[in-house]
Design goal:
With 417 residues, the protein is α/β, with parallel strands linked by helices. It has helices at 12-16, 19-22, 27-30, 48-51, 92-99, 116-125, 129-132, 162-171, 192-198, 203-225, 284-295, 387-395, 408-412, and strands at residues 73-78, 102-104, 139-140, 147-148, 183-188, 233-237, 243-246, 250-252, 267-269, 273-276, 306-310, 329-333, 338-340, 349-352, 366-369, 377-379. It is 25% helix and 15% strand. The strands form 5 sheets. The protein has a 6-stranded mixed β-sheet with strand order 5-1-6-15-2-16, sandwiched between helices. It has a 4-stranded antiparallel β-sheet with strand order 9-10-12-11, covered by helices on one side. A two-stranded antiparallel ribbon has the order 3-4. Helix 8 (162-171) runs parallel beside helix 10 (203-225). Pfam families: Phosphodiest (PF01663).
Length: 417
């Protein structure tokens, strides 16, 4: 089965025009023998040769299961866990997974845009957003006019305490071995919530990271109590990083008025991903040309920190063109800057993500611990679309076609005994 979908061979309309075709059937998500627990979560990849880790002084053969009758993967996502947060405070439980498992030494690379919903869908499908269809946290389908929103992702909706989420996962290990799901997920909305409010360098982040570490400890202790910790594969990731923002780093679309008016109803998202869909009869090329003329004029505050493209002219490494849902005009904002429609007296300093995934601040974490992950292994950074094939390989199930590299799991997992 073809495991890597070439962007130019995908039919955008076929994949995304109707609701029925938007959400593809995916064996990882839909197999009767698997389970995802939604406990809180409603550039081509480098060639395998560049992602092959150093294997000096580490084991080469996977460890056999001692108690469970089949492989089990727990995929943990800590929203907005920027790479480096693990060094902000003592994290003995995360550190234990790292010391006895495999870590992306310089972090996990999210897909573009570096936003929550596009990245979580990429993690569990192995597809870039243009192919799984969730191209932003909020967007309109151009064919139906329907709006996708992540409104229910606001912290006020999260009613299940972190401890209860962990305990729910642990409860499945009290079932007979044959009934234990092979795949479970665990989601924490921190430290993203704090990052947006105070930025990545505030003591609130340190407290949030310490809390996440306690939850990892709770999970480890529960698995150990049941005698299955060494049998269970734990993959801990984040969906994106975080960077500080402040009022002095603002770009206002109204400042472009001498060159072109950009009405608010043209703009599907302002920042950090500027997405514009002009009405029929307005040439996207003309809009891009006039916007860039103004931005480069030196007369627009911070204008040099916004570059506007026709989506077809975006850097190919972003993989952000092959969907009708992606508006025709995309603006790339420099790290830490924000775009707003018009000037206001509102004061705001905090944090943001969604920027170009080439920025190191957008990186997050990858830790793999379990029978097929070598202890103490460090591997190069990779894009999160590779995780899907990694999970299906561990579970020994056939995955759906995706944008990951078929050989990637073999480059980082231990071989079978």
């Amino acid at each position: 089965m073809q495991q890597y979908l070439q962007p130019d061979k995908m039919s955008t309309r076929r994949q995304f025009q109707s609701k029925k075709k938007t959400h593809r059937t995916n064996p990882l998500l839909c197999s009767p023998s698997t389970l995802i627990l939604p406990l809180g979560l409603p550039g081509n990849p480098p060639p395998p040769s560049s992602q092959t880790p150093s294997t000096a002084h580490i084991e080469s053969t996977a460890r056999p299961l001692s108690k469970l009758g089949h492989p089990v993967v727990i995929l943990i996502s800590s929203d907005g866990f920027r790479f480096g947060y693990q060094f902000k405070t003592a994290t003995p439980n995360i550190g234990r997974l790292i010391a006895n498992g495999t870590e992306a030494e310089h972090g996990l690379i999210p897909v573009f845009p570096t936003l929550t919903f596009p990245n979580h869908y990429s993690i569990v499908t192995g597809l870039y957003p243009a192919y799984h269809g969730i191209i932003n946290n909020r967007f309109a389908d151009p064919h139906t006019g329907e709006i996708f929103t992540m409104g229910s992702h606001e912290p006020k909706w999260w009613l299940v305490p972190f401890e209860e989420r962990v305990d729910t996962v642990l409860g499945y290990f009290d079932l007979p071995s044959s009934e234990i799901p092979i795949f479970m997920t665990l989601y924490f909305e921190d430290p993203d919530h704090q990052g947006h409010q105070v930025g990545p360098d505030d003591p609130e982040i340190t407290d949030a990271v310490a809390r996440i570490d306690r939850m990892i400890g709770r999970l480890i202790q529960g698995l150990e109590k049941r005698g299955v910790f060494d049998d269970v594969t734990i993959i801990m990731v984040g969906d994106h990083g975080m960077v500080g923002t402040c009022d002095k780093k603002l770009i206002f679309l109204e400042d472009l008025a001498p060159w072109i008016e950009i009405p608010g109803d043209w703009v599907q998202s302002h920042t950090p991903l500027l997405a514009i869909r002009p009405p029929p009869g307005v040439s996207p090329s003309d809009v891009v040309a006039k916007m860039n003329e103004g931005l480069k004029s030196g007369k627009v505050d911070n204008g040099k920190n916004l570059r506007v493209f026709l989506k077809e002219e975006l850097p190919s490494r972003l993989h952000y063109v092959a969907s009708d849902r992606i508006p025709p005009i995309i603006g790339l904002v420099e790290e830490g800057f924000k775009v707003e429609q018009k000037r206001s007296k509102r004061q705001e300093c905090g944090g943001a993500h969604g920027y170009d995934n080439a920025f190191f601040s957008m990186r997050t974490i990858f830790i793999g611990h379990g029978p097929e992950f070598a202890r103490g292994q460090k591997i190069p950074s990779f894009e999160n679309v590779q995780i899907y094939n990694l999970v299906t390989s561990i579970l020994k199930i056939q995955g759906a076609p995706n944008n990951g590299t078929q050989s990637f799991p073999q480059s980082i997992l231990l071989s079978s005994p």
